[in-house]
Amino acid sequence: MTGTLAIAGIGPGDEALVTPEVSAALAAATDILGYAPYVARVPAREGLVLHPSDNRMELARAGEALRLASEGRHVVVVSSGDPGVFAMASAVFEAIEGSPQWQELPIRVLPGVTAMLAAAACAGAPLGHDFCAINLSDNLKPWLAIEKRLRLAAEADFAIALYNPRSASRPEGFARALEILREAGCDERIVIFARAISTPEERIKTVMLREARPEMADMRTLVIIGNSATRRVGRWVYAPRDVR
Amino acid sequence: MTGTLAIAGIGPGDEALVTPEVSAALAAATDILGYAPYVARVPAREGLVLHPSDNRMELARAGEALRLASEGRHVVVVSSGDPGVFAMASAVFEAIEGSPQWQELPIRVLPGVTAMLAAAACAGAPLGHDFCAINLSDNLKPWLAIEKRLRLAAEADFAIALYNPRSASRPEGFARALEILREAGCDERIVIFARAISTPEERIKTVMLREARPEMADMRTLVIIGNSATRRVGRWVYAPRDVR
């Protein structure tokens, strides 16, 4: 019996943003693994085993998913948004690197609508010109690498999407990120705070960077900082295509 | 009669990557506008008017869509991938800026799976760490801005997704981009050439940057350059989450 493993992106929250490819994988699965709030989005049915786990358990979860697939189960690991953007796909390949017997398993990565795309759509088109995405969590990388990237991103005049800007265990990083961007001359850039986009708690707030305060973000917020040409038109924010 | 306008991302090609939100908008539309190959993906039906147009007609197309919506039509402008990433959403807001009477129209941007996410999923997880997206077309921005961004992106050690790397009218830019990345010390980085992902012509090729040649890309190719830690495991390429 050959098992399978799919690492699937279930989008930012709204079921209307889940691709048919992912819905089909969920419908064919025997086992669903993931961070508990994401597993909770998969409807229970007979024969489907749900394996919710805690945050920061990514590598253990990946190993468990591979083990189940190697035993013939049809396993789906769920990530919110897209599984390849600061999510479970890298953890699965890391687990495979440590256990080469799993390299030949039938594995698929199923893309999804990542948070910055949903946030951008809600605000207008702030990612319509060149941009970058930075994970502000320093759980797995040195904080100085984040500082360096922020400075270079400002110098490159990228729009900047900040994932995981702020959590209870990391209250200081986002405040420091705002300082760095101020030092880099970004005071007059537009900042979008997009919280829980496409869920009932959705809230979007747009300010100038000089007005941005750390407490405007929490762990459910995606922050987009416009480039130097990004501007408002009516209730929308967009990056012009044409930059001279 | 109130019209509506949706700017919708129809994903990279496979219908299984079109979100239900976008499918619903297409099913309710009276008029579809877009670049002809994308409009051709929408099935004809009675009462639906298709308005295919040429490439580089973005601003005229956006104005026409707004005019139709203001006359009470239910208009969908289609982009491949996501409409907010180097696509039609910015053009629509640009058109609104020039014609403020359209600011109050009911407009929605419907996100989709953009090419770099589909390409990354196909290759493994090369966007699992911080990354940037650069449009290599200099139709609307100075080439020197692109060169500067490439240098800063290499210095920041971002993975780099290159959209529109090469076309018949712009054969030189991608060759120059590869030179710049070589000068920046990226010879040993992994490069993924992802062509027509999720279509019957899908083809994926992975080489080291020192082996990359300009003719490996064409106008249907999305190029991803790994960061300095990106590596292979079996048939996959991924960016480790943990970088020290």
What does this structure look like?
The structure is a homodimer of 244-residue chains. Chain A is an alpha/beta fold and 244 residues long. Chain A is built from 7 helices and 13 strands. Chain A has helices at residues 20-28, 36-39, 58-70, 88-98, 115-123, 143-155, 173-183, and strands at 4-9, 31-35, 49-53, 74-79, 107-110, 124-125, 131-135, 159-163, 190-195, 203-208, 221-225, 231-233, 236-238. The first copy, chain A, has a 5-stranded parallel beta sheet, sandwiched between helices. In chain A, α2 links the parallel β2 (31-35) and β3 (49-53). In chain A, α3 packs across α4 (88-98). The longest helix of chain A is centred in the N-terminal third of the chain and has 13 residues, at 58-70. The model of chain A has no long low-confidence stretch (mean pLDDT 96). Chains A and B meet through α1, α4, β5, α5 and β6 of A and α1, α4, β5, α5 and β6 of B. β7 (131-135) of chain A pairs antiparallel with β7 of chain B.
Supply the key terms.
homodimer, 244 residues, alpha/beta, 5-stranded parallel sheet, 5-stranded mixed sheet, 29% helix, elongated
